[in-house]
Design goal:
- The chain has about 300 residues and is of the alpha+beta class.
- Helices cover about 20% and strands about 30% of the residues.
- It is built from six helices and 16 strands.
- Helix 1 (about 20-25) packs across helix 2.
């Protein structure tokens, strides 16, 4: 269903609010969804069409903000792409796990976006539409970074989605990653750190020092452990088992420890001589109750290990 044109009067209680916050509250959207309306030129004040750069402007009482018709997020549908390859690793009643290639987003951010895992999935399983968060996030149980490869879990039934989402939230899902980190990591270990979002779009997180934990806002605690599998002359192949699943947790953690993921363009430091074409992080294994899926190392991951070994 498409929402009609809207005229939003700025009242005294709204005075001084950020434009994106004002739109989100009045239209019952998230702030990111409100920013997308701005980005596509759907918002104006008088004859002035506002862009995403106006998201931080403060609204003034008495002003009318006009919003063009738009599809509500829960009603949007991903474009079905039957020609996009889809490798199913495992499936059961109400769920399936696919092998996500590096470079493939999990789901589209816009109804016209294609090339995501959901675009390929919805062509084979149209029943996934409307499950969970619905819209362009239908059926998505968890997420992987665009350049992270491996096991990705979807639900095709609402009750199964609720059960699996709860398991992720309560840290009851076993997740195993394989990664190549720069430098010679001395041995196995475990760590718990605090993270805050330092930037949105593109997102970047930073590790919060212990002395800052009590003062920083929006801190999320993340913990993981790792095991060294093979040491090369300038890198180390490791297995990582995160207990939590925060944004960029593995990448930010090892960069903080001084061993960034090989090929990581965000958290890596200068002087990466591994030749990695992307961040060498692979979701190798996922398990919870009847859900069990494993993904073999992709070709680029095997090639980097072979090169470093040689």
């Amino acid at each position: 269903m498409t929402a009609p044109n809207r005229s939003l009067e700025v009242g005294d209680a709204d005075a001084g609010s950020r434009l994106d916050v004002f739109l989100a509250e009045r239209l019952e959207l998230s702030r990111s969804q409100a920013r997308r309306l701005l980005a596509r030129g759907a918002v104006r004040i008088g004859s002035r069409i506002l862009s995403e750069n106006a998201k931080g402007e403060r609204v003034r009482p008495g002003v009318t903000v006009l919003v063009s018709r738009f599809s509500r997020p829960e009603n949007q549908r991903a474009v079905a792409e039957p020609d996009v390859p889809l490798v199913v690793l495992a499936q059961g009643t109400g769920w399936l796990a696919i092998d996500k290639p590096a470079g493939t987003p999990v789901h589209p951010l816009d109804p016209e976006e294609t090339g995501t895992a959901l675009n390929a999935l919805i062509a084979r399983h149209p029943e996934v539409h409307g499950v969970g968060e619905a819209g362009l996030r239908s059926g998505v149980v968890h997420r992987l970074d665009v350049d992270t490869s491996g096991v990705l879990l979807f639900a095709t039934r609402e009750d199964v989605w609720n059960r699996l989402r709860a398991a992720f939230s309560e840290h009851r899902v076993t997740k195993v990653y394989r990664a190549v980190v720069r430098g010679e990591l001395a041995g196995d270990g475990a760590v718990e750190l605090g993270f805050v979002t330092a930037r949105h779009r593109p997102a970047v997180v930073r590790v919060v020092d212990e002395g800052e934990l009590s003062r920083a806002r929006g801190v999320r605690r993340g913990s993981l452990r790792w095991r060294c599998l093979e040491r090369f002359s300038e890198a180390t192949l490791i297995e990582v088992k995160p207990r939590t699943g925060h944004l960029h947790q593995i990448r930010a953690t090892f960069a903080h420890l001084g061993f960034p993921i090989a090929g990581d363009p965000v958290y890596g430091r200068a002087g990466d001589s591994t030749g990695a074409p992307r961040q060498m992080l692979h979701a190798a294994h996922l398990a919870f109750e009847e859900v069990l899926a494993a993904s073999p190392d992709p070709a680029d991951f095997r090639e980097i290990c072979a090169r470093l070994r040689a």
